[in-house]
Amino acid sequence: MKTLLSCFLAWTLLAAALSAELHVDTQAGCSMTANDLVYILDGSSSLRPGDFQLAKRWLVNITNTFDIGSRHTQVGLVQYSDTPRLEIPLGKHLSNQELVAAIEDTGHLGGSTQTGRGIKFATQHVFGSSNRTRAARNRIAVVLTDGRSQDDVVDAAQEAKAQNIILFAVGVGNEIDSSELESIANKPSSTYVLYAENYAAIGNIRDKLAQKLCEASVCPMQTTSSAPFRGFDLLTSMKLDVKAQKVQGSVMFQAAYRLNTKMDFTESTRSILPEGLPRAYVMVTTLRLRSPSHKVKLDLLRVVSQDGRRQMALTLNGVDKSVIFTTAAAASLQGKKEQSVVFNNKGIQRLFDTDWHQLKILVRSGRVTSYLDGVKVEEQLLGAVTSIFIDGKIQVAKKVKMEVTVPLELQKMRLYCDPEQNDKETACEIFSEDDRCPLDRQPAGSQSCNCPIGKKGSSGLPGSMGFRGEKGREGPPGPDGKPVSSTFTQWNDSDRCVCVCMCVCVCVCVCVCVCVYVCVCVCVRERERERERERERDCLRAS
């Protein structure tokens, strides 16, 4: 009996442990993404020994921004000159320390610059050699060169892109060919092509490349009617355009969506942010807080872990008219699991005036900045940020610490992974002055139009017969009629009429008189008279 009880308790504890293991919240972010990353390094004789050491140190610094391992990022290294040489097979080293040591031990080849051969070698022999149990989420190549290639790079780059390899091109020095780098890299060139003045200055673009690699690792490409971008269109992914009521937006011909308390906008974080958040980003929201919502404290957007901790939140405090940004804190911040900054500058308070506004929150390393209607409001310091947990939920427009949806109107809610999008994103949705905005904008509700009259349209088809109308009113009496002669049925004003009154009296003791009024019209028409005169004149002439 004791043996059975012991077995039962053991199985119970094992099941509980397995259950706890299965329900551990997953952390995700740039450093933890499953990437296959291959460096294609120019080892030609144009690099001096000191420059080659600087190039390797630069690769080490980029590598340290990723977690190296079989489940995360695996790195390979190809050095090329006359011919390519595999320095580090993809996935050979499964720790940052081992990988850094291998990069630093790489010797300089020397020779000519055959960049095309280096790209082709990586595509055909390195990317396919990974021993992952699951396919990598992203395949990324970084080509580092300081001069014009002596072979064709276009075909090699096209072959790599056809196999879904994302190509970055980094040019160093003044001997590089910009058009060649652009033909190597993915589009747009502003994202995938980077330049450094020399190898001593290559460290200046380390953070920029690390951010671009992070964007490519974490953020999906979104296609819009304007320009594609890497990031998240939360208006669509959170199904606001499906669940909410469509209404007139901030300017004419712009749609918005009205939320109410009966609606719920909650999704699993994994379905919206499957790889977490990038290190730097800009969040853009166009909204209107109508009364009484403008006096409520609400989380416009919040990401919550399984145990209820906020991983990221944008809070609008209508009580004191402030904006609060919250994000997950790195372990180095005195044991804190989250950190918040408050924007309560006078400029941000207009957000609560019940009119349309555009709110931008720009997050960069060490600082976060707020903008309202395209104008910078305030900048605050931000501590070190860590990756978020993605097995919880993400929500829109909820009261703080509650599951109640706050009524408001949303026109845009996007998270751009490229922080430089902050300068490109105008406030043209708000009827404010901006030289970059179209001149024909009209605020919502304005219907005025100074338009020329168009040409008259063509006649339409005949309509059907109408209903019989009502009987009209009786007209006024007509003028007295003229007497009718029995001899002449027609006369005019030139006819002559003679009227005679006749009386007959009969006297037998009493006289009775009967008078009869008789009109005899002797009509002589003017035509007859004229003929008569004409004959008389003829006679006179003849005599």
TrEMBL record:
Keywords for this protein: Collagen, Glycoprotein, Hydroxylation, Membrane, Repeat, Secreted, Signal, Transmembrane, Transmembrane helix
One GO cellular component term: extracellular region
Region described as Disordered: spans on this chain: 460-485
Intracellular or extracellular location(s): Secreted
Record has Methyltransferase as a keyword: no
Cleavable signal peptide: 1-19
Domain VWFA intervals: 36-209
SMART domains to which the protein is assigned, alphabetical: TSPN, VWA
Record-linked InterPro entries: ConA-like_dom_sf, ECM_Assembly_Org, TSPN-like_N, VWF_A, vWFA_dom_sf
Transmembrane segments: 500-524
Assigned protein family: Belongs to the fibril-associated collagens with interrupted helices (FACIT) family.
Alphabetical list of PANTHER family matching this protein: COLLAGEN ALPHA, COLLAGEN ALPHA-1(XXI) CHAIN-LIKE ISOFORM X1
Protein name, per record: VWFA domain-containing protein
Organism: Muraenolepis orangiensis
